[in-house]
Every structure is written in structure tokens, then in C-alpha cells.
Amino acid sequence: MQGGYAIGRTAPLATLDIDGEIVGLASAAGWFVVGFDRDAPPVVTITVTTADGSASHEAVIAPGAFNIQSIDGLPADQVAPVDPILLARIAAEGERKAVGFNSVADLDAFRSGFILPVEGARRSARFGGQRILNGEPRRPHFGVDLAAPVGTAVRAPAGGQVVFAETGLHFEGGLILIDHGQGLITAYLHLSKVVVMAGDFVEQGQMIGAVGKEGRATGPHLCWRMKWRGRNLDPSLMVGANASRS
Hints:
By secondary structure, the protein is mainly beta. It has two domains: 5-60, no CATH class; 75-125 and 143-238, Glucose Permease (Domain IIA), CATH 2.70.70.10. The protein is 9% helix and 42% strand. The protein has two helices and 20 strands. The chain has helices spanning 76-79, 84-101; strands spanning 5-9, 15-18, 21-25, 31-35, 43-50, 53-60, 68-71, 122-125, 130-133, 136-140, 143-147, 153-155, 160-169, 173-179, 184-191, 193-194, 201-202, 207-210, 221-228, 231-233. The strands form five sheets. Strands 8, 11, 13, 14, 15, 17, 19 and 20 form an eight-stranded antiparallel β-sheet that branches. The two termini are 22 Å apart.
């Protein structure tokens, strides 16, 4: 479905092609993951190629059900910043985040399944909904919001490598990015505390930070996001996925 994924296995280091675009290689064990964007088309063709030939699969993509969410009372500079100094800061932060989002770690930790990063949280916003901020229509919300008290532990939902970890970002506050393999990146926004560093390898269930309300947030929660090679995915759909026995 839109915002969903496929996990597969082929020959080690086979070339992966999505709709005619080469996007990388399978892992050394042959595992690969494919993400379907929030606005993915009805059919996506997945092709793997080895020295012995190629094989394709047409994935039929079901449409997502995305709602509309209005948030009022945000400071103006959190909706449409105009100050040149602030804009320069946001641009610099964007460049650093882009490095993390472009990571392609040689891992396949995604195949063992995901857990929720915050236990006992209330889901306060779903993935993919249209956002209206202070009355202005904005881009869709590409995260799942998990409301919990400030200081609640945030744990790695799956193993991977930390590729970004900073505090004090304008929009995100404390932000961590984890690469679970082949560019499947999860993001953790608005953290009040970050307890890992870029380059660290984490295991499923390991504490990485704490819930906060930093950056563009009206209350304490974790905004949990997932991207795969520029495509925005719904991380909650990965909870319980387990291909490790295949």
C-alpha cells in the first residue's frame, strides 16, 4: 500500500531496479527492502538482476487513507520563517540531515522486524495526513506521532547504525536518524534527550533518547518517520514484520 514496503530475497549483491531506476544492491545475504511512497502509483515493478539474468515482480499498491489535521497556535517562525539568519540556520541543518538521510549502510537489520519505539504511547497523529498549520495548508505529515510524557524512553525499534544525532534543531529539536540497512532510515523528532552518537550501532530495544516537545511541537510526543531512498513510508506498517525465517 502507499507508505508501505516489500522485503525480498535474491542472489547476494543482485542489482535492484524500481520502475526502470537502479536503486542499489541486495545485501551480501541477498536481502533487500523496497519502500512505496505516500503517493506511489497503483503498480510498481521490482526487478532484480544477477549474472544469470533478471526477474521482475509487479507490486499492486493499494491507496492509503489519509486524514486532515489542523494545528493552530504555532509561532510564526515555525510555520513560515522569514528571518535571513534563521533561514541560513535552517538551510545548514537541512544539509547535515541530508547526509544522514542519504546513508546506505551495508546491513539488513530491517528483516528481523520492528517494535514501537515508545511503550504505552497514544497515537496522536497518523502518517500521511494533510496538515493545516495556523490556517495554512502545508505538506503532508510524513510521521506517526506517539504522545507520551517528557522524558519517556525512546528505544530503537530495530537494529541499525545511527547516522545523525543532534539537539537544538529549529524544526525537530532533538533528532536521531538510524539506517537499518540499504537506506531504510527511521527518524525520531522533538527529543528532549539524545543518548547516542552518529556512528553508533544500536540493537532493537536499546534506549536512544527521550520524548520531548522541542522544535515545532505543541506538546510532548515522538514524531516517528521512515524514508527509503527519498520515499516517505509509514513506519508503523513495519511493526511486526519479520522475514528472518525466510
